[in-house]
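Write out the 3D structure for:
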Amino acid sequence: MDDLLEQFLLEGRELVQQAADDLLALERSPKDAARLDSLFRAVHTLKGSVGLFELVPMAQALHAAEDALAALRAGSWAPGADGFRALLACMAACQEWIEDFALAGALPATAATVSAGLVAALRQAPPAAAAWLAPLQAGAGEALAKAWAAGQQVVALRYVPRADCFFLGEDPLALARSVPALLALELRGQAPWDGTASDPYRCNLVLELLSAAPAEALQRLFRFVADQVTLVPLQAATAAPVSSPVMPREDAATAGSLRVDAAKVDALVDLVGELAVAKNALTHLLAAAEAGTAVAQAFAVQRLELETLVGRLHRAAMELRLTPLARTLRRFPLMVRGLAAQLGKTVAFEVEGDQLEADRVVVDGIAEPLLHLLRNALDHGIELPAQRLAAGKPAVGTVRLLAQPDGERLRISVADDGAGMDPARLRQVALARGLASADVLADMDDASSLDLIFLPGFSSAGAVTDISGRGVGMDAVRSAVQALGGRLQVASTPGGGTTFTLSLPQSLSLTAVVTVSAGGERFGVPLQVVAETLSLPAASVHPLRDGEAFVWRGQTVPLLRLAALLGRQVQPRGGGACKVLVVRVAGHPVGLEVDAVRDWLNLAMRPPTGLLAQMRGVLGTALLGDGRVLLVLDIAGLLA
């Protein structure tokens, strides 16, 4: 891909997202000047970037949006609900056009028609003259009349410097003195003086002036403060604000940021993974050396130092990959608003926890699953306003996207207060579609019935829409989450709403595991779920109903054979002691009997792919020092 195009696509997505965020914030707080300035800069910068490519419809729509925002900044236009709707529609269209351009190298055939509609909506009500123009013109009546009589075009300019402009090397008065063909200049305070001592390092000026110079000359002069300037070309009887197409200053929030090529980071992580494998190989060399010799002692010291170094290096590398969830979550408010309007529903959408960080692979990988879950919530979860009122609910539905830390993992939930799902109806649908037998369904409780939506081909929707169908593709959603090393669960109450919960690894760093033997194979169990290892006398194991149990720290704990859970051959126990891992699942202790407890290792674990991604109870894979692949078990998934 061309470097310029790649940069445009990267920055274009960020600018559209920033503009959408600012618009949604402005709709709630219309007087937020900082948000308005940020919005204007984003739209203006995007319009300039679009000009580098043959994207005429997109440029026209952005130009109309920029004109509307310039009028809003000048105080001559109050957008109202229709105005915000038109601006949001423009950003949504730009978002789609950027993706179309990335895939096909051109805008779709419908772009010109869509753009014309957006331009018409944005310019439906031409803004009136700005309030600050009248007194400025009145004070320069004679000079203004002479300029018009000479056939000159007069431009009005309003410059509101930032309070900290002196520290940025700016001199507002020097800029004003540099204006060519100056006809009038008015200086005012942004805030009235209250009679107390003022801060000499804080700028409180507003500069308003008239000039007979061309607008292009003024744009060049004020190019470094474009976000603080409004230009209005004047005619003898009217004044209409226009945008000032000059390059905005780099935003302070991004000046200190650094983009790192993802391929370089991935290469570093792979290298660290190989280093971890080499470190684990020392364990086998140490075991081969004769115990107590100087060689063995040297190996032990070197292995400890290498293990410490690998851990530090791997943590540093993984921190490079940590990305705020906002990278994915910020794209959803605009989508939710548009779909809700399309469906004739009013929805309050809440996002919390987008400041949390996770591995880049996880942040990017959850985009599609969350998109599908949100579409389901809007289309088949939230009811129409009339239906909600009839059910005693507020007309406005609520969809909440919440991210929370959960130990070393990340928990993300998508919850709606809509119609919910009826377990009895789900069982009927599964029976009608032949997805489960009547006997199996009869023994199924309500919680288990909700999991039926994850069966391939399951759908409880009466009609499949072009947006979603509750259950359609939910098996793919769960598979996508599992491919990231995560789990997906659902809870629902008829009439009370539905909540989907994703449990995901927050970082794909080194994982501490204890390796065990079971059924003639070697497996890894994450150390974080292991409470204790036991050598349990066979006489301490007692039959309990259809299973076995033992007493651990004063409580009865079920005992399960790991080989049987994995479908492997179970070795006779005999009269010796049992090797048991006490693990905690959902806060409760469970005993896992294994053939042997082996090593404790730090491994670079990778999420399962291919056929392994479909296997229940597999958390990931890791390469051992002797070249063998180790399956790391998901104990909670194995016992579910």
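The two ends are 46 Å apart (CA to CA).
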